[in-house]
Amino acid sequence: MSKTITPYHDEQATKKEQVADMFNNISKTYDFLNHFMSLGIDIIWRKKAINELKNDKPKLILDVATGTGDFAFEALSILKPEKIIGVDISRGMLDIAEQKIAKRGLGDKFGVKLGDSEKLPFEGAEFDAVTVAYGVRNFENLEKGLADINRVLKPGGKVVVLEFSKPKAFPIKQLYNFYFSYITPGIGKLFSKDARAYSYLPESVAAFPDGQTFVALMDKVGFKNTKCRPLTFGICSIYTGIK
């Protein structure tokens, strides 16, 4: 295993605690910065990831690391499930999700819960589908988190993971590294109280076992029919698997 990348280098807290702190710190500017820094492409990536579930017509969906709920709201409008439950480790992010839910009058369709992605607060075989958008990179123990997602899925249920990956081709790789290593932290410093969070982003992407390494981990915890679909020159990837 490579060295665990944490948001704050000098703290003794676990990665999990630090990630919760970091997202509490940046929750107010998170949505704006996300769209701004991905040049709005993250909205297209989300739609593509959600469309992976179109033919499955899941009734009950779990959105892990739901954050401020953007992915879940999009899934609600595209897939029309009976209900989505979002779980996240950061109370600050969930407060914003709850404000959005109330504003949109979607309380009966979308509920959120504070919880650990690697010890999901649900029974086994409960959900038709599980989604994770930009969350697996922040897991403290990736294998444990994936195994727990497998546990809460019904047999035949599907997992869809959307995550940053590392482009391989010139010049995209070089441009991407420059943007992520220099521009992203700079923008983060300007708009957010927590500049460190936006240096953590490229570091956590660089350390993430993307592509076939991640697929192998999905296979290892028991997912079948696993696939990796790179998007936009491999800046992002969609991973799918069936329980």
Name of the level-1 CATH class: Alpha Beta
The string of secondary-structure elements, in order, is HHHEHEHEEHEHHHEE
Radius of gyration, in angstroms, nearest whole number:
17 Å
Query: What number of domains?
Result: 1
Q: In DSSP terms, counting alpha (H) and pi (I) runs of 4 or more, how many helices?
A: 9
Task: Label the overall shape.
Answer: globular
Average residue-wise pLDDT: 91
Largest sheet: 7 strands, mixed
Q: Uncertain segments of ≥5 residues (pLDDT<50)?
A: none
In order across it, which strands form the biggest sheet? 3-2-1-4-5-7-6
Please name the fourth-level CATH homologous superfamily. Vaccinia Virus protein VP39
For the secondary structure, the number of strands is 7
Calculate the terminal CA-CA distance, rounded to whole Å.
25 Å
In CATH, the architecture is 3-Layer(aba) Sandwich
- Structural category is alpha/beta
Q: CATH topology, what is it called?
A: Rossmann fold
**What portion of residues is helical?**
40-55%
